Amino acid sequence: MVLTDEIKDFIQALIKAKKNLHLYPENNPVYIKTLDDIYSRLTSVLQETDSITLRFKQYDILYDTDVVYHNEEKDESFALFFFKDGVRELTFKKGIPKEEFEEFMQVISSDFERDLVDDDIVTLMWEKDFQFISYVVDDTILVEDENYEDEATEQAKSGAAEDDEVMKAYEEAFGIEKSEGINIVPLTNEDLKSIVEEIENDQPEKSGKLISILFEMLYLADGKAEYEEISEFLKQTVRYAVQNGNLEAVIYCIRRINDAFDKESFSQDLRIYLRGIKYYINSIGFVKKLGEVLDEGVEFTQDIISEFASLLDKSSIPHFISILGDLKNISARKTVISILSELGKKDIQLLARGLNDRRWYVVRNIIYILRQIGDRSAVEFLLRAVRHSDKRVKKEAIRALGEMGDVTAVQTLKDCLDDEDEGVRMATVRAIGYLQTPVSRKILLEQINNKQFKEKSFTEKKEFFEAISRYRDTEVINTLFKILKKRAFFKRAKNEEMKAAAAYALGLMKEKSAVDLLEKLKSSKNRLLRENVQIALKRIRDGKE
Amino acid sequence: MEKSESVQGKDIINQLAVVLRTGHFHTPDNVAVLSAIKRFLELINPVILQDGMLRIDLIGEFFYINENRVRYPLEFLLNFDYLIREFKRRELGSLTFVSQVRQEDMREFLRIFINAAFSTTPFEAMEAALEEIDSIRVERLKHIKEERDVDKRRLVKKTYFNAVSFTRGIMQKLRAGEKVSIKKAKRVIESMVDTLLSEESLLIGMTAIKDYDEYTYHHSVNVSILSIAIGQKIGLHRRALTELGLVALFHDLGKMEIPVEVLNKPTAFTEDEWKLIRRHPYWGARAILKLKGLDKTSILSAIVAFEHHVHYDYTGYPKVRRPLPLDFYSKIVAIADQYDAMTSSRVYSRVPLPPDRALSVMMERAGTQIDPILFKFFVNMVGVYPVGSLVLLDTRELGLVYECNPLFADRPRVMIIVDASGKRLEKGNVVDLTEKDSSGRYLRSIVKTLDPNKYKISLAEYLL
Question: Taking CA atoms, what residue in A is nearest to B307?
Answer without folding.
Answer: A213
